[in-house]
Design a protein that fits this description.
By secondary structure, this protein is mainly alpha-helical. About 60% of the residues lie in helices and about 5% in strands. Helix 1 (about 35-50) runs antiparallel to helix 2 (about 55-75), helix 4 runs antiparallel to helix 5 and helix 5 crosses helix 6 (about 165-175). The N and C termini lie far apart (about 105 Å).
C-alpha cells in the first residue's frame, strides 16, 4: 500500500523525479477549466461512482488526477527548479568574506558540537567535552567577526576611493547595494472579454487603442458642447460681477482725505523710529 507521501506525484514520476514546483503570482480565471482537465475530472468522478473502490483503484485515480493537475499547472505557470542542489545553492550561498580558515574552524566547531550534544551529563568526560565545545565555538565566532569587520572596512575604503577617483564606479556600487529593480515591461494585457493575453500582436493592439483614447478623447456632440459653453460663460460673468463689486469700497471713514496734522504726527513717530504705534 502506498503512503500519502508516495502518492504526491504520478506513478511514472514517483521514483525518478521530485514534485514539481511552480511560481504562482496570479491565478487566471480559466485555470482548471480547460477541456482536457474537465474531461479528466469527469472521468475520475465517473470512476468513483461506477466501479467498486479499492486501494489500487484509488491510487490509479489519484495518479490520473495529479497528471491532469500538473499538466494544467505547466500550461499556466512557470516551473521552478526544485532540485536539492539548486535549493542548497540559493539558501546556503557563502558569505563574501568566507575563506579556508573559517571552513576549518567551522568543521572543528561542528564536530565538537555533535559530540557535545550526544554526551550524557553523567559521563565523566562531560566537563572536558563542554569546555572543548565552547573553545571551538568561541574561536570560530571570533574569527568570523574579525573577517566580517575586515571585509566591511575594505568595502568602505573602496567606496571612499571610488568617490574621489571614479564617481561613476562609486554610484554603480551604491546602486548594486540596494534591491534590484525589475526593468522588464509586462507583455500581457487584459482584453475586453476578461481574458489575459500575452500574444505580441494583441498587446500592441491594446496599447494602441488605449493611447489613442487617452491622447485623442472622443468629441462630444454639438448639443452637449453648446450647453457646456453656456455654463462656462455664465460662470465667468458671475465671477467678474462679484470681483467688480468687491473692488468698490463705500466706507466713508476710509475715503476721508488725509489732513496735515496726520502727516506731521506720522513723520514725528517715524523720526523716533516707532512708526508702528500710530
Amino acid at each position: 500500500m502506498q503512503t500519502n507521501a508516495q502518492r504526491n506525484v504520478p506513478a511514472n514520476h514517483a521514483q525518478t523525479e521530485l514534485p514539481k514546483r511552480f511560481k504562482v503570482d496570479r491565478v487566471p480565471d480559466e485555470f482548471m477549466y480547460s477541456n482536457a482537465t474537465v474531461e479528466s475530472c469527469l472521468e475520475i468522478i465517473d470512476g468513483l461512482l461506477r466501479d467498486r473502490i479499492n486501494q489500487d483503484k484509488l491510487d490509479t485515480l489519484h495518479d490520473k488526477y495529479v497528471e491532469a493537475y500538473y499538466a494544467e499547472m505547466s500550461e499556466f505557470f512557470k516551473e521552478i527548479n526544485s532540485t536539492p542542489q539548486c535549493r542548497k545553492s540559493l539558501c546556503h550561498a557563502p558569505k563574501p568574506y568566507w575563506n579556508s580558515e573559517l571552513s576549518e574552524l567551522w568543521k572543528l566547531y561542528f564536530i565538537a558540537e555533535k559530540v557535545f550534544v550526544n554526551m550524557r551529563k553523567d559521563d565523566p568526560r562531560y566537563d572536558f567535552v563542554t569546555r572543548e565545545f565552547r573553545q571551538k565555538r568561541r574561536a570560530f565566532e571570533k574569527k568570523l567577526r574579525s573577517e566580517k569587520r575586515s571585509y566591511l572596512r575594505r568595502q568602505v575604503y573602496d567606496l571612499e576611493k571610488a568617490n574621489t577617483s571614479n564617481p561613476s564606479e562609486f554610484w554603480r556600487t551604491i546602486e548594486n547595494l540596494g534591491p534590484k529593480k525589475k526593468r522588464k515591461i509586462p507583455t500581457e494585457v487584459l482584453l475586453e472579454d476578461g481574458s489575459v493575453s500575452d500574444i505580441f500582436d494583441d498587446v500592441l493592439s491594446k496599447w494602441r487603442r488605449d493611447f489613442q483614447e487617452l491622447l485623442t478623447p472622443p468629441i462630444p456632440n454639438s448639443a452637449e458642447q453648446q450647453e457646456f459653453s453656456r455654463l462656462i460663460a455664465e460662470g465667468n460673468e458671475e465671477a467678474e460681477a462679484s470681483w467688480s463689486n468687491e473692488r468698490v469700497n463705500t466706507d466713508t471713514e476710509l475715503n476721508v482725505p488725509i489732513t496735515k496734522n496726520e502727516i506731521y504726527t506720522v513723520l514725528a513717530w517715524f523720526r523716533w523710529g516707532d512708526i508702528r504705534h500710530y
